[in-house]
Amino acid sequence: MKRILAAATITLVAISATACGSGDDSDSGGKTKVVFSYWGSDARQKLTESAIATFEKKNPTIDIEGDFSDWDSYYEKLATKTAAGDAPDVMSIEIRGLAEYAGRATLADLTGKVNTADLDQDVLKAGQVDGKQYAIPTGVNAFPMIVNRATVEKAGQKVPDDTTWTWDEYISISQKVTEQGDGKVWGTEYNENPAFLQLFAAQRGEQFYQDGKIGLSEQTVKDWWALLQKIISTKAGPSAAQMLETGTNVDQALLATNASAFGSWWSNQLTTLSKGSGQELDLMRMPKAEGATTAGMFLQPAMYYTISSKTEQAAAAQKFVDFLVNDPEAGAILLSDRGLPTNPKVVTAIKDKLTPADQKVLTFIDSIRSELSPIAIPPKGSMEMEDILKRATDSVLFDKASADDAAKAFLTEANAALTE
Protein backbone atom coordinates (compact mmCIF):
# COMPACT_ATOMS: atom_id res chain seq x y z
CA MET A 1 0.00 0.00 0.00
CA LYS A 2 1.78 3.14 -1.22
CA ARG A 3 0.63 5.84 1.17
CA ILE A 4 -2.91 5.55 -0.15
CA LEU A 5 -4.12 8.16 2.27
CA ALA A 6 -1.70 10.71 0.86
CA ALA A 7 -2.47 9.65 -2.70
CA ALA A 8 -6.18 9.97 -2.14
CA THR A 9 -5.67 13.42 -0.64
CA ILE A 10 -3.81 14.58 -3.74
CA THR A 11 -6.31 13.00 -6.11
CA LEU A 12 -9.30 14.44 -4.35
CA VAL A 13 -7.97 17.82 -3.28
CA ALA A 14 -10.36 19.55 -5.67
CA ILE A 15 -13.36 18.13 -3.88
CA SER A 16 -12.00 18.01 -0.33
CA ALA A 17 -13.83 21.22 0.52
CA THR A 18 -17.20 19.55 0.07
CA ALA A 19 -19.57 18.86 2.94
CA CYS A 20 -17.67 17.33 5.85
CA GLY A 21 -18.88 14.40 7.85
CA SER A 22 -21.28 11.74 6.78
CA GLY A 23 -23.89 13.23 9.05
CA ASP A 24 -24.92 15.83 6.45
CA ASP A 25 -27.72 13.59 5.17
CA SER A 26 -28.30 12.04 8.55
CA ASP A 27 -31.75 13.17 9.58
CA SER A 28 -33.69 10.40 7.88
CA GLY A 29 -37.13 9.70 9.25
CA GLY A 30 -36.44 11.79 12.32
CA LYS A 31 -33.41 9.70 13.25
CA THR A 32 -29.77 10.68 13.55
CA LYS A 33 -27.69 8.65 11.12
CA VAL A 34 -24.20 7.51 12.08
CA VAL A 35 -22.03 5.77 9.48
CA PHE A 36 -19.73 3.11 10.91
CA SER A 37 -16.93 1.75 8.71
CA TYR A 38 -15.22 -1.56 9.40
CA TRP A 39 -13.55 -4.49 7.64
CA GLY A 40 -13.59 -8.23 8.07
CA SER A 41 -15.18 -11.52 7.17
CA ASP A 42 -18.81 -12.40 6.54
CA ALA A 43 -18.93 -13.73 10.10
CA ARG A 44 -17.77 -10.37 11.50
CA GLN A 45 -20.35 -8.56 9.40
CA LYS A 46 -23.15 -10.69 10.83
CA LEU A 47 -21.96 -10.15 14.40
CA THR A 48 -21.63 -6.41 13.82
CA GLU A 49 -25.08 -6.12 12.30
CA SER A 50 -26.49 -7.89 15.34
CA ALA A 51 -24.69 -5.48 17.68
CA ILE A 52 -25.95 -2.52 15.65
CA ALA A 53 -29.53 -3.81 15.89
CA THR A 54 -29.19 -4.10 19.67
CA PHE A 55 -27.84 -0.56 19.93
CA GLU A 56 -30.63 0.83 17.77
CA LYS A 57 -33.23 -0.92 19.90
CA LYS A 58 -31.76 0.74 23.00
CA ASN A 59 -31.36 4.08 21.17
CA PRO A 60 -34.38 4.38 18.85
CA THR A 61 -33.50 7.90 17.70
CA ILE A 62 -30.14 6.81 16.23
CA ASP A 63 -29.70 4.86 12.99
CA ILE A 64 -26.32 3.15 12.52
CA GLU A 65 -25.37 2.52 8.90
CA GLY A 66 -22.70 -0.14 8.61
CA ASP A 67 -20.11 0.56 5.89
CA PHE A 68 -18.49 -2.86 5.48
CA SER A 69 -15.48 -3.76 3.31
CA ASP A 70 -13.15 -6.68 2.94
CA TRP A 71 -9.62 -6.16 4.22
CA ASP A 72 -7.96 -5.73 0.83
CA SER A 73 -10.08 -2.71 -0.13
CA TYR A 74 -10.73 -1.17 3.27
CA TYR A 75 -8.03 1.46 3.60
CA GLU A 76 -8.20 2.59 0.00
CA LYS A 77 -11.94 3.14 0.39
CA LEU A 78 -11.51 4.89 3.74
CA ALA A 79 -8.72 7.14 2.45
CA THR A 80 -10.79 8.17 -0.55
CA LYS A 81 -13.81 9.05 1.58
CA THR A 82 -11.67 10.91 4.09
CA ALA A 83 -9.92 12.97 1.44
CA ALA A 84 -13.27 13.84 -0.15
CA GLY A 85 -14.56 15.24 3.14
CA ASP A 86 -16.99 12.35 3.50
CA ALA A 87 -15.34 10.38 6.28
CA PRO A 88 -17.55 7.88 8.13
CA ASP A 89 -18.60 9.14 11.55
CA VAL A 90 -17.10 6.12 13.32
CA MET A 91 -14.09 4.44 11.74
CA SER A 92 -12.25 1.22 12.51
CA ILE A 93 -8.49 1.48 12.10
CA GLU A 94 -5.55 -0.65 13.18
CA ILE A 95 -2.50 0.31 15.17
CA ARG A 96 -0.35 0.91 12.08
CA GLY A 97 -2.78 3.60 10.91
CA LEU A 98 -3.21 5.46 14.19
CA ALA A 99 -0.31 7.90 13.92
CA GLU A 100 -1.06 8.41 10.23
CA TYR A 101 -4.71 9.33 10.68
CA ALA A 102 -4.24 11.24 13.92
CA GLY A 103 -1.41 13.23 12.36
CA ARG A 104 -3.65 14.35 9.52
CA ALA A 105 -6.26 15.81 11.87
CA THR A 106 -8.70 13.17 10.67
CA LEU A 107 -9.63 11.88 14.12
CA ALA A 108 -11.45 13.56 17.00
CA ASP A 109 -9.86 13.71 20.44
CA LEU A 110 -12.08 11.45 22.53
CA THR A 111 -10.63 12.45 25.90
CA GLY A 112 -13.62 12.78 28.22
CA LYS A 113 -16.03 12.05 25.36
CA VAL A 114 -16.27 8.27 25.77
CA ASN A 115 -16.38 6.55 29.16
CA THR A 116 -13.02 4.83 29.54
CA ALA A 117 -12.93 4.49 33.32
CA ASP A 118 -13.46 0.72 33.27
CA LEU A 119 -11.09 -0.05 30.40
CA ASP A 120 -7.62 -1.49 30.89
CA GLN A 121 -5.67 1.75 31.30
CA ASP A 122 -2.41 0.34 29.94
CA VAL A 123 -4.16 -0.81 26.78
CA LEU A 124 -6.06 2.49 26.59
CA LYS A 125 -2.74 4.34 26.33
CA ALA A 126 -2.17 2.52 23.05
CA GLY A 127 -4.88 4.73 21.57
CA GLN A 128 -3.09 7.96 22.45
CA VAL A 129 -0.95 10.16 20.22
CA ASP A 130 0.78 13.22 21.68
CA GLY A 131 -1.23 12.82 24.87
CA LYS A 132 -4.63 12.85 23.16
CA GLN A 133 -7.03 9.89 23.13
CA TYR A 134 -7.72 9.58 19.40
CA ALA A 135 -8.71 5.92 19.48
CA ILE A 136 -10.44 3.42 21.76
CA PRO A 137 -9.03 -0.14 21.57
CA THR A 138 -11.67 -2.71 20.66
CA GLY A 139 -9.83 -5.54 22.39
CA VAL A 140 -6.40 -7.10 22.65
CA ASN A 141 -4.48 -9.76 20.77
CA ALA A 142 -1.27 -11.66 21.17
CA PHE A 143 0.73 -13.33 18.38
CA PRO A 144 1.38 -16.87 19.70
CA MET A 145 2.31 -20.20 18.22
CA ILE A 146 -0.80 -22.34 17.74
CA VAL A 147 -0.54 -26.12 17.88
CA ASN A 148 -2.65 -29.13 16.99
CA ARG A 149 -1.42 -31.50 19.71
CA ALA A 150 -3.14 -34.52 18.18
CA THR A 151 -1.23 -34.04 14.92
CA VAL A 152 2.08 -33.72 16.76
CA GLU A 153 1.42 -36.82 18.86
CA LYS A 154 0.22 -38.83 15.86
CA ALA A 155 3.67 -38.26 14.38
CA GLY A 156 5.21 -39.75 17.50
CA GLN A 157 6.38 -36.40 18.83
CA LYS A 158 5.80 -34.61 22.10
CA VAL A 159 4.68 -30.99 22.31
CA PRO A 160 7.57 -29.24 24.07
CA ASP A 161 7.56 -26.98 27.10
CA ASP A 162 6.85 -23.55 25.61
CA THR A 163 8.82 -21.77 28.34
CA THR A 164 12.07 -23.31 27.15
CA TRP A 165 11.73 -24.44 23.52
CA THR A 166 13.99 -22.99 20.84
CA TRP A 167 13.65 -22.27 17.14
CA ASP A 168 15.83 -25.30 16.37
CA GLU A 169 13.59 -27.55 18.45
CA TYR A 170 10.50 -26.13 16.74
CA ILE A 171 11.95 -26.85 13.29
CA SER A 172 13.14 -30.33 14.28
CA ILE A 173 9.72 -31.37 15.59
CA SER A 174 7.99 -29.84 12.58
CA GLN A 175 10.33 -31.69 10.21
CA LYS A 176 9.50 -35.01 11.88
CA VAL A 177 5.77 -34.31 11.67
CA THR A 178 6.14 -33.68 7.95
CA GLU A 179 8.05 -36.94 7.51
CA GLN A 180 5.20 -38.86 9.16
CA GLY A 181 2.48 -36.92 7.38
CA ASP A 182 2.30 -39.06 4.22
CA GLY A 183 2.44 -35.93 2.10
CA LYS A 184 -0.81 -34.65 3.59
CA VAL A 185 0.39 -32.85 6.68
CA TRP A 186 3.17 -30.31 7.18
CA GLY A 187 4.94 -29.78 10.46
CA THR A 188 4.30 -26.05 10.38
CA GLU A 189 2.97 -23.21 8.32
CA TYR A 190 4.56 -19.77 8.61
CA ASN A 191 3.73 -16.25 7.59
CA GLU A 192 5.46 -12.99 6.82
CA ASN A 193 3.52 -10.84 9.29
CA PRO A 194 5.66 -8.01 10.74
CA ALA A 195 4.54 -9.20 14.19
CA PHE A 196 6.63 -12.34 13.64
CA LEU A 197 9.73 -10.31 12.85
CA GLN A 198 8.95 -7.93 15.72
CA LEU A 199 9.04 -10.64 18.37
CA PHE A 200 12.00 -12.38 16.72
CA ALA A 201 13.91 -9.10 16.96
CA ALA A 202 12.80 -8.51 20.55
CA GLN A 203 14.50 -11.77 21.51
CA ARG A 204 17.72 -10.06 20.40
CA GLY A 205 17.01 -6.85 22.25
CA GLU A 206 15.94 -4.93 19.15
CA GLN A 207 12.76 -2.95 18.51
CA PHE A 208 10.98 -2.88 15.17
CA TYR A 209 10.64 0.90 15.47
CA GLN A 210 12.90 3.18 17.46
CA ASP A 211 12.84 6.99 17.51
CA GLY A 212 10.60 7.13 14.46
CA LYS A 213 12.84 4.88 12.38
CA ILE A 214 13.38 1.17 11.84
CA GLY A 215 15.20 -0.23 14.87
CA LEU A 216 16.14 -3.54 13.25
CA SER A 217 19.68 -4.42 12.26
CA GLU A 218 20.44 -5.92 8.87
CA GLN A 219 21.69 -9.05 10.60
CA THR A 220 18.44 -9.62 12.48
CA VAL A 221 16.38 -9.26 9.32
CA LYS A 222 18.69 -11.69 7.51
CA ASP A 223 18.57 -14.15 10.39
CA TRP A 224 14.78 -14.07 10.36
CA TRP A 225 14.80 -14.88 6.66
CA ALA A 226 17.31 -17.66 7.34
CA LEU A 227 14.81 -19.12 9.81
CA LEU A 228 12.08 -19.13 7.17
CA GLN A 229 14.49 -20.61 4.63
CA LYS A 230 15.41 -23.37 7.07
CA ILE A 231 11.73 -24.21 7.57
CA ILE A 232 11.44 -24.59 3.81
CA SER A 233 14.73 -26.40 3.13
CA THR A 234 14.16 -28.99 5.87
CA LYS A 235 10.57 -29.47 4.71
CA ALA A 236 9.36 -28.55 8.17
CA GLY A 237 6.94 -26.40 6.22
CA PRO A 238 5.81 -25.80 2.63
CA SER A 239 7.73 -23.95 -0.04
CA ALA A 240 7.17 -20.23 -0.51
CA ALA A 241 5.09 -20.95 -3.61
CA GLN A 242 2.87 -23.36 -1.68
CA MET A 243 2.42 -20.86 1.14
CA LEU A 244 1.53 -18.21 -1.41
CA GLU A 245 -1.39 -20.36 -2.53
CA THR A 246 -2.69 -20.45 1.04
CA GLY A 247 -2.54 -16.67 1.33
CA THR A 248 -3.38 -14.74 4.49
CA ASN A 249 -6.99 -15.83 4.81
CA VAL A 250 -7.39 -17.56 8.15
CA ASP A 251 -10.19 -19.74 6.74
CA GLN A 252 -7.62 -21.24 4.35
CA ALA A 253 -4.85 -21.66 6.91
CA LEU A 254 -3.19 -25.06 6.96
CA LEU A 255 -4.11 -25.31 10.64
CA ALA A 256 -7.76 -24.73 9.74
CA THR A 257 -7.68 -27.56 7.20
CA ASN A 258 -5.70 -29.98 9.40
CA ALA A 259 -2.75 -29.79 7.04
CA SER A 260 -0.30 -28.46 9.62
CA ALA A 261 0.67 -29.09 13.24
CA PHE A 262 1.96 -25.60 14.06
CA GLY A 263 1.31 -22.06 12.85
CA SER A 264 1.42 -18.47 14.09
CA TRP A 265 -1.76 -16.41 13.96
CA TRP A 266 -3.32 -13.65 16.03
CA SER A 267 -4.97 -15.02 19.15
CA ASN A 268 -8.45 -13.80 18.22
CA GLN A 269 -8.26 -16.06 15.16
CA LEU A 270 -8.17 -19.22 17.27
CA THR A 271 -11.94 -19.67 17.15
CA THR A 272 -11.98 -19.57 13.34
CA LEU A 273 -9.00 -21.93 13.12
CA SER A 274 -10.57 -24.35 15.61
CA LYS A 275 -13.93 -24.26 13.85
CA GLY A 276 -12.30 -25.07 10.52
CA SER A 277 -10.14 -27.79 12.01
CA GLY A 278 -12.84 -29.44 14.07
CA GLN A 279 -10.03 -30.39 16.46
CA GLU A 280 -8.50 -29.02 19.64
CA LEU A 281 -5.97 -26.29 19.02
CA ASP A 282 -3.87 -24.72 21.76
CA LEU A 283 -1.79 -21.58 22.18
CA MET A 284 1.90 -21.56 23.05
CA ARG A 285 4.61 -19.01 23.63
CA MET A 286 6.74 -18.52 20.56
CA PRO A 287 10.08 -20.38 20.49
CA LYS A 288 13.16 -18.46 21.60
CA ALA A 289 16.62 -18.00 20.21
CA GLU A 290 19.41 -19.69 22.15
CA GLY A 291 20.25 -17.54 25.17
CA ALA A 292 17.28 -15.20 24.76
CA THR A 293 15.75 -14.05 28.02
CA THR A 294 12.35 -13.27 26.51
CA ALA A 295 10.08 -14.71 23.83
CA GLY A 296 9.44 -11.14 22.71
CA MET A 297 5.67 -11.50 22.87
CA PHE A 298 3.43 -8.48 23.20
CA LEU A 299 -0.20 -7.44 23.46
CA GLN A 300 -1.64 -5.29 20.73
CA PRO A 301 -5.06 -3.75 20.20
CA ALA A 302 -6.85 -5.89 17.66
CA MET A 303 -8.12 -2.63 16.19
CA TYR A 304 -9.57 0.70 17.30
CA TYR A 305 -12.82 2.60 17.20
CA THR A 306 -12.24 6.21 16.18
CA ILE A 307 -14.54 9.15 15.41
CA SER A 308 -14.10 11.58 12.55
CA SER A 309 -13.02 15.07 13.54
CA LYS A 310 -15.49 16.32 10.92
CA THR A 311 -18.56 14.43 12.08
CA GLU A 312 -21.73 16.43 12.67
CA GLN A 313 -23.11 13.64 14.84
CA ALA A 314 -20.46 13.57 17.54
CA ALA A 315 -22.81 12.85 20.45
CA ALA A 316 -24.48 9.91 18.70
CA ALA A 317 -21.12 8.57 17.50
CA GLN A 318 -19.70 8.77 21.02
CA LYS A 319 -22.72 6.94 22.42
CA PHE A 320 -22.25 4.15 19.86
CA VAL A 321 -18.53 3.71 20.66
CA ASP A 322 -19.36 3.73 24.38
CA PHE A 323 -21.88 0.95 23.76
CA LEU A 324 -19.39 -1.16 21.82
CA VAL A 325 -16.70 -1.12 24.51
CA ASN A 326 -18.71 -0.86 27.73
CA ASP A 327 -22.08 -2.55 27.26
CA PRO A 328 -22.19 -6.25 28.22
CA GLU A 329 -24.88 -6.81 25.59
CA ALA A 330 -22.46 -5.67 22.89
CA GLY A 331 -19.75 -7.82 24.44
CA ALA A 332 -22.04 -10.86 24.46
CA ILE A 333 -22.57 -10.46 20.71
CA LEU A 334 -19.08 -9.53 19.53
CA LEU A 335 -17.24 -11.76 22.03
CA SER A 336 -13.57 -11.92 20.95
CA ASP A 337 -14.09 -11.10 17.27
CA ARG A 338 -12.24 -7.80 17.71
CA GLY A 339 -9.94 -9.18 20.39
CA LEU A 340 -10.77 -9.93 24.00
CA PRO A 341 -12.60 -6.90 25.46
CA THR A 342 -10.43 -4.41 27.36
CA ASN A 343 -13.21 -3.82 29.88
CA PRO A 344 -12.80 -6.42 32.68
CA LYS A 345 -16.44 -5.97 33.68
CA VAL A 346 -17.54 -6.94 30.17
CA VAL A 347 -15.18 -9.93 30.19
CA THR A 348 -16.67 -11.12 33.48
CA ALA A 349 -20.21 -10.68 32.14
CA ILE A 350 -19.59 -12.64 28.94
CA LYS A 351 -17.08 -15.22 30.17
CA ASP A 352 -19.61 -18.06 30.18
CA LYS A 353 -20.62 -17.17 26.60
CA LEU A 354 -17.10 -17.34 25.20
CA THR A 355 -16.32 -20.30 22.98
CA PRO A 356 -13.90 -22.91 24.33
CA ALA A 357 -11.27 -21.41 22.02
CA ASP A 358 -11.89 -17.92 23.41
CA GLN A 359 -11.64 -19.30 26.93
CA LYS A 360 -8.23 -20.65 26.01
CA VAL A 361 -7.16 -17.25 24.68
CA LEU A 362 -8.31 -15.55 27.88
CA THR A 363 -6.42 -18.05 30.04
CA PHE A 364 -3.32 -17.88 27.84
CA ILE A 365 -3.10 -14.09 27.83
CA ASP A 366 -3.57 -13.98 31.59
CA SER A 367 -0.77 -16.54 32.00
CA ILE A 368 1.77 -14.57 29.94
CA ARG A 369 0.71 -11.03 30.83
CA SER A 370 3.70 -10.45 33.11
CA GLU A 371 6.06 -11.43 30.27
CA LEU A 372 4.64 -9.12 27.63
CA SER A 373 6.41 -6.10 26.19
CA PRO A 374 4.68 -2.70 26.42
CA ILE A 375 2.47 -1.71 23.50
CA ALA A 376 4.29 0.65 21.13
CA ILE A 377 2.45 2.77 18.56
CA PRO A 378 4.21 2.61 15.16
CA PRO A 379 5.17 5.95 13.58
CA LYS A 380 3.56 7.56 10.56
CA GLY A 381 4.28 5.59 7.41
CA SER A 382 4.07 2.20 9.07
CA MET A 383 0.89 1.36 7.16
CA GLU A 384 3.20 0.49 4.31
CA MET A 385 5.40 -1.82 6.35
CA GLU A 386 3.59 -5.09 5.76
CA ASP A 387 3.77 -4.65 1.99
CA ILE A 388 7.41 -3.52 2.07
CA LEU A 389 8.42 -6.44 4.26
CA LYS A 390 6.50 -8.95 2.18
CA ARG A 391 8.14 -7.80 -1.06
CA ALA A 392 11.59 -8.08 0.47
CA THR A 393 10.84 -11.43 2.10
CA ASP A 394 9.41 -12.90 -1.09
CA SER A 395 12.44 -11.73 -3.05
CA VAL A 396 14.61 -13.84 -0.72
CA LEU A 397 12.33 -16.88 -0.39
CA PHE A 398 11.82 -17.03 -4.17
CA ASP A 399 15.58 -16.63 -4.80
CA LYS A 400 15.19 -13.34 -6.62
CA ALA A 401 17.63 -11.47 -4.38
CA SER A 402 20.36 -12.23 -1.90
CA ALA A 403 19.60 -11.72 1.77
CA ASP A 404 22.29 -9.02 1.92
CA ASP A 405 20.79 -7.02 -0.94
CA ALA A 406 17.20 -7.56 0.20
CA ALA A 407 17.95 -6.48 3.78
CA LYS A 408 19.59 -3.25 2.60
CA ALA A 409 16.69 -2.60 0.24
CA PHE A 410 14.12 -3.31 2.92
CA LEU A 411 15.67 -0.98 5.48
CA THR A 412 16.12 1.77 2.90
CA GLU A 413 12.56 1.58 1.63
CA ALA A 414 11.08 1.15 5.11
CA ASN A 415 12.90 4.17 6.54
CA ALA A 416 11.94 6.22 3.49
CA ALA A 417 8.28 5.40 4.12
CA LEU A 418 8.61 6.63 7.69
CA THR A 419 10.06 10.00 6.67
CA GLU A 420 7.71 10.90 3.82
UniProtKB/TrEMBL annotation:
Keywords: Signal, Sugar transport, Transport. PROSITE patterns: PROKAR_LIPOPROTEIN. InterPro entries: Bact_solute-bd_prot1, SBP. Pfam families: SBP_bac_8 (PF13416). Residues 1-19 form the signal peptide. PANTHER family: ABC TRANSPORTER SUBSTRATE-BINDING PROTEIN YESO-RELATED, ARABINOSE-BINDING PROTEIN-RELATED. This is Multiple sugar transport system substrate-binding protein. It comes from Streptosporangium lutulentum.
